[in-house]
Request: fold
Amino acid sequence: MTAVIGRDILGDPVDRVDGPVKVTGAAPYPSDVTYPGLVHAALVQSTIGAGTISRIDTVAAGAARGVLTVLTYENVPALAEAPKVLLSPAPRFPLKDNRIVHYGQHVAIVVAETVEQAVAAARLVRVDYATTEALLDIDDPRAPVDRNPWGMENSRGDVTAALASAEVTYDETFTISAETNNPMGLFATVARWEDDRLVVHESTQWPMMARQVLATMFGLPEQNVRVLVPFIGGGFGAGLRLPPHAVLTALAARTVQRPVKLVLTRPQMFTSIGHRPATVQRVRLGATRDGQLVAIDHEGTSTGGIEEGGVEPTTMVTPEMYACPNVATHDRQVRLNIPNPGAMRAPGTVEGNFAVESALDELAYLLHCDPIQLRLRNYAEVSPVSGLPWSSKALRECYRVGAQRFGWQRRNPEVRSMRDGDWLVGYGMAGVTFHWYQAPCQARISIRRDGTAYARSAATDLGTGTYTVATQLTAELLGLDLGRVRFDLGDSDLPPAPQSGGSGLAMSLGAALHAAAGNLLRAFLGVIATDERSPLRGRGVDDVTMSTGRIHLVDDPSVGETYTDILTRHDLAELTADGAVDPTPEGADVEPVGAFAARFVEVRVDEEIGRLRVARMVTAVDGGRILNEKTARSQITGATVMGIGMSLLEQTEFDPGTGRIANATLGDYLVPVSADVPDLDVVFVGERDRFSPVGIKGLGEVGIVGVAAAIANAVHHATGRRIRSLPITVEDLL
Ligand code: MOS
Reply:
């Protein structure tokens, strides 16, 4: 058995390096940006779900005080088609013609000297529509259906035969409501043109993508577009595509030849930046009486926009989860007249986990077996897809340590058997397998003569700690104190980085910084290669290491010299090196792997009034090496809160006639508040990952996965009610 809790994998819980600028209000979010001469935009949005604009009258709006322009499909200049980028289809430019494909589609953008003037003038735009019936229901037989839309379907063995001959079978359907990303920061765009150069401050998780889309649509060389986002007030995946309003704002700025700012309103956020689509999943299991899985068949259906679609692979992780010989997955996407869905934390995986981990709990009851034992009985020791050993996997420790901290052995497996006064008490658990994702990334590091270092990459920090962990890692790699290292991000002019998404940035950026630090060491050795005065002359990278501001021999730390000495002697202001990684796993002898986790939940249910409380939760996570215990814990607790929202509260309600979102405010769309959230215990287990050069795995999304299944399983244990739809409502419990 490995160590109970891997203290050796825990990085220093240092405070966020960007904390002071945030708490003093000095951190510039996109909505804070201003320029001399800046003017303001407001959007006009469709009030029908499908049809065409028959007439759009902008005369009154255009004549209103302070108005500089009103752009509609009738007068907007043509733009090139947006490129397709990873994780999302090319966005449909909303003013490309008079067609309306969803409620809330932008139909005009008004620019005026002040926000108030722009908003007032937007109300004066009169739009007549020819309305057609909007397709809004995932079960609507008229809706177009794409099968295997992402090419991710997977199959091994013979699932049909295995299900037909299994001793025990299971077949149930799970549904999850649409949900909406609600970052605190309202998405904003500030666009400014200098001749044929465009500068955009954008709430994006991916400056390089935003640059590419804008350059393509406006027909500019990419280096003529600069996207800046040093801070963003959250995103949860909404910033993984460039929303149409950003393009409109850039177009408006070009039209009026002034910098233009657009800040979405909260209701506009619900229709403009994507959402988690509704899903329906069917899970079929076959097992032996003693709990060996012989078949898993998982079919997932999600909703997509009528013209663009979306990526919500609910079945993607299923083939990797358990050592089952016969597995088949099927994906379907139903195209509807809804605002195009987008990524929302652990897209696909979080829904798939709810279905499969609920199904396993049901199977455990059918077999009279402990839910943890059932999972261990089917534990995947190696990747069931590739047959290779995982680059690291401590899911077994997650179960063991989590169960211990939670007190799982106190659970009486019989439903409705545990009480506390009027409350029914339920214990539930779920296992979590997340998937590996990494993308090409570059970083640049300089060491200056004063002994400080400056690292940078065009990454983003969603608020989760990229600034902090990149600073920590750079300091560690160079052997410098944290205070001597500065890290910059959020600028597309910096070395290209991938999105902050897919739980891949820390791994990608960590590997790029590792490569840059290695190259920087080589650069220093190059400078002193023939330097008579250097004790390190002629030494190779394997002979030396970097610590306490010096390069010194590995074998004899007394032989070495400081960065400052070398730079001073050679009259250099600084030395700079780039690092690049393209972590394609082909040919690897291990299966690179994402994080694992186990969740344990205690719920309390008052059946008289249908009241459900999450009383306690323990999460054990294998995230490989943890760069910063504090920010990592925050990642997990924050995502867990989101998981509680998904389980109990969050539900985007589309009006059945028009597709209007009926609860598009934070008063009506419920997210968890502190009173909904119990004490959350998080423990990290495991070891350094073997695939990542810095030993880490992504933690951005795993924290939301498994919450819903663990809660639903606990509700079943408490009440005997099996709830297969989210969110779990009062009505479900009465
Ligand atoms: Mo995420 S949904 O990968 O930002």
In short: Residues 205, 235-237, 240, 343-345, 347, 501-502, 701 surround dioxothiomolybdenum(VI) ion (CB under 6 Å). DSSP finds 17 helices and 29 strands in the chain. Residues 1-7 have pLDDT under 50 and may be disordered.
